[in-house]
Amino acid sequence: MVADVGALRAVDEGVARRLKALACTAPLHDLDARKSRLDWVDASRYQMAEIALQAIDQVTLAMDFDHGADQAEIVKRLRPFVAAQAPDAPPGEHERVAQWVIENLINVGSLDRGFQADYGTFTEDGRYVRRRFDFKLLVEVAGPDGEVYLRASDEAINVLVGALDTDVESAQVAAEVKLENLISRGRLGDARLAAEQARYRTVQYAEALRQKLDATRRDVRSVDWLTAVPELLDEALTHIESRYRAETAILANIADARDEATEPERRRQAAELVEVVSDCIQRHTQLQARLQEAGATFRAEQDRQQFSGRPKRAAIDVFGQLLRPCLALDTATATGPAAAFFTAGAGVRVPSVPSLTGLVETLLTPPVERDPLGEPVVEPDLAPVSVERFGDALWEAANRLLDPGRGTQRLSRLLAEAREIDPELPTLVALRVAHAVGASVGTARNQGDETLLLAFDDGTVLHDPEFGGADLLVTTAGVRGGEADVEEVA
Amino acid sequence: MSREIQPHDVEAAARLVAHGMRPKALPSRDAGYAELVRRYRDDDAFADTVQRVASGLGLVVLAVGPQSGIVLAAVEESVFEIRMDEYARRTVLQNRQTDKMLHGLAHLAAAALAFPRPDDLGDDSYVGRVSVDQVDGAVREACRVLEERTAGVEADPLSDAPQLEAAWRAWLRRPEATATKDGRVGEATTRGIVGKALRFLADQGFLVPVGTEGGVYRTTPRYQVQVRELAAQRAFDELLSLGVLPAATAGGALRAPTGLEAPDV
To answer: Which of A164, A165, A273, B53 has a CA positioned 20 to 30 A from the CA of residue B238?
Structure first.
């Protein structure tokens, strides 16, 4: 019987691991299953799972040391992939689809913004129990500037690279060997894939290091600098070293392959691979710089955190003796000490006692009415902008100059006279005269005007510092009402 | 020194207690308050009266000092007590238990980060600094260490008994921040919970915001007294009664051995 239980458990562990790995892909399948319910888009032509993988890909690549990827940026990068699936859809739709996929990968609707999957296992005594596996794909984190960024979770990276249950280091070595083979055989498409996989490993190392350094800054003791971190640093350094060698070799090989390739497709692949590998090398350099700083960070933090004052009295270590044990308890039990700390540590609440005057005032204050539509939109008072460039005085002066009693005049003479009266006046005169060229008699009669200003061009050229054109002849004609008069004037 | 207590002494004692109910009043800013504090420390009969007045109101005098002023704590069921239910009111019923625990843990973590070492809690001249970032980061780190420790062991919680889920899982599962429409941190996130705790402590005169950035606070002597004399002790007792014996100190190896300490000058 005991042997049976042991066998059950042995099988069970592998199954549980695979079930969890399988669960990580469920949200992707779910996207395609649910897309038909979207009423704002004809979703059948979009491959949502594909977009989701692209999204995780983009987020992983955009993750760097300090924060993650900007959501708007990721949507922007996703757009071409979405657009490729439905080129004739409006661009707004592409963006919305990308947004929808990202939100579903975060699982925005749920409180924990994550996913859950149930799976069954056997306990020590052979009992079957159901357990819950919580995981996330895209995680929102707060950046140093207070903005919210996206990071891909470990589960997501594992789903993405497909190494669901493999050791990082051995997968690394395997990937390298594969790469060299691929290059020697000239299979560049696969080589690119392998180079990209190596890049994910680098990102993972960088992420692990970042977490350790952050923890060190908070409390040196929380991180094992005696063995664990040096091991991590060693591993990462070895990784960089081997990658650097491999990638330099690749670069040289590919440059050859690119130059020798005659087939345009092969040539393009090689060029793309060069780009990927350059990016890899850049990331390795970045990681290496961080690795070099890691030791210094540790020493500085150790100095800062160790040498401050001498103990004066025995007190409780709040972190080590209270917080950590509480975190290890189950939810129901941990509430006890946590609530006890809160009640004792929150201080006193002073019950508010309303004074009589205050009470009366409070009671008499009419309740603030809240319009469900919000504040009314204030009608703006529109005041006409003064467009009057020429004041009454100028118009008056212009009228005097263009008085019918002065007979026919040359524009040049009018301008000269006007300039003597006021520097602005010539402009007004010129405008009125220009308006008088070919003035319509019919309009003047309809409006009931008694006189009509007329200007004619007799070919004389105007010589004036401000205005150019013809030196017009200006005169005033009388307008008489009646059909017959029109004929006469015409 | 000892003499008859007169009615006006009782009035003075009550005035001192009243000062303790104004979270932001400090002896250094109020000569009358400073005088009462001095009298408490010099005059045993007066000190006794103050304690009795407080006790009659349902309060305990934790400490009286020139820096902290009088630090009071409410006894259980007193009108001055702040209940967790009132504090964590705005939560959905189904998450109430978890939310209460998370709020409590946030306060515990704020104290832990304000006084990272036991010595800091003991040293009256120590001023700690905390920020939302730091507190949430430290708790997450502690949770991750626990996660690593349980990795390999069958660790996922039972799906039909959510109350048996480990506390660290609940914290890790909560997102640290969510993008909201108005750009603020979501309330149900761990950062939202920690932020609420720090703001509340600042309102209670336990923390003082520093810097222009916002979100960074320094501790006040009141807070140190409150945590040291009461809160940490209560939580410790509670843990003991649960049979959890907290280890003496975490990673004490980093501290210099006793023989190597610098001699007192």
So the answer is: B53
Contact B122, A315 (CB under 8 A): yes
- Each residue's pLDDT tens digit, A338-389: 888 898 888 888 877 767 887 888 788 887 766 666 666 777 777 776 667 7
CB B46 within 8 A of CB B39: yes
CB contact (8 A) between residue B249 and residue A317 = yes
Q: Which of A119, A313, A328 sits opposite B122 (nearest CB)?
A: A313
Is the CA virtual torsion B145, B146, B147, B151 positive or negative?
positive
- A347 contacts on B by Cβ (under 8 Å): 23, 72-73, 82, 204-206, 222, 226
Cβ partners under 8 Å of residue A320, min gap 6:
B246, B247, B249, B250, B251
Residues of A in contact with B175 (CB under 8 A): 112-114, 139-140
Residue B217's SS3 state is strand
B-chain CB neighbours of A304 within 8 Å are none
Q: What is the pLDDT along chain B (265 residues), one digit of tens a residue?
A: 456 788 899 999 999 999 998 888 889 888 999 999 999 999 999 999 999 999 999 999 999 988 889 999 988 888 888 888 888 766 555 567 788 889 999 999 999 989 887 778 888 888 888 988 889 888 988 888 888 887 766 567 777 777 778 888 888 888 888 777 665 667 788 888 898 899 999 988 899 988 766 678 999 998 998 998 888 888 888 888 888 766 554 433 223 323 333 333 3
Give the DSSP letter of residue A34.
H
Domain residue extents for chain A: 1-160, 166-304, 392-489
**A129-167 tens-digit pLDDT:** 888 888 888 888 877 777 788 888 878 877 655 544 344
Contact call for residues A96 and A102 (beta carbons, < 8 A): no
Contacting A residues, span 5-24, partner chain B, CB-CB under 8 Å: 16
User: Which tokens go with A370?
Assistant: 């809240």
The interface pTM score, or ipTM, of the predicted complex is 0.85
Mark out the alpha helices in A68-167 (DSSP H runs). Answer: 71-85, 91-106, 154-161
Which of A342, A350, A352, A353 to probe by mutation at the B interface, max B CB count within 10 Å? A342
Check residue A406 and report its DSSP letter: G
Among A residues 141-180, those touching chain B with beta carbons less than 8 Å apart: 141-142, 144, 148
The size of the A-B interface in CB pairs under 8 A is: 308
Q: Nearest by CB to B175, from A113, A309, A317: name it.
A: A113
Picking from A457, A303, A140, A98, the residue whose alpha carbon sits closest to that of residue B191 is A140
From the CA of A136, how many Å to the nearest CA of chain B? Answer: 9
Nearest CA of chain B to the CA of A316: how many Å? Answer: 5
Which two structure tokens, joined as six digits, stand for A255? 């440059």
Interface test with A, best of B141, B145, B163, B200 (most A CBs within 10 A): B141
B193 touches chain A (CB under 8 A): no
What are the distances in angstroms from CA B260 to CA A7, A307, B97, B253?
55, 13, 48, 13
**Across the interface, do B177 and A323 touch by the CB < 8 Å criterion?**
no
Q: Are B104 and B234 in contact (CB under 8 A)?
A: no
Residue A489's pLDDT is what?
41
> Residue written as tokens 């760097």?
A64
Compute the Cα dihedral for A245, A200, A192, A259 and give only its sign: negative
Burial of B16 (0-12, 13-18, 19+ CB in 10 A): buried
If one counts every other C-beta atom within 10 angstroms of the C-beta of residue A258, the result is 18
Whole-angstrom distance between the N-terminal and C-terminal Cα of chain B?
36
Burial string for A360-379 (b: 16+ CB within 10 Å, else e) reads eeeeeeeeeeeeeeeeeeee
Q: Is A128 exposed, middle or buried (0-12, 13-18, 19+ CB in 10 A)?
A: exposed
